[in-house]
Amino acid sequence: MSTVTFGVAPGSGEKLHEALGYSGAVRVGDRVETSGQAGVDDDLVVPDALEDEIIQAFDNVERALATVGATWKDVIHVNSYHKVVPGDDAIGDDVNAVMAEQFRRRLDGRAPIWTETGVTALGLAAMRVEIRVTAIAGSANSLA
Question: Rounded distance, CA 87 to CA 89, Å?
Answer without folding.
Answer: 6
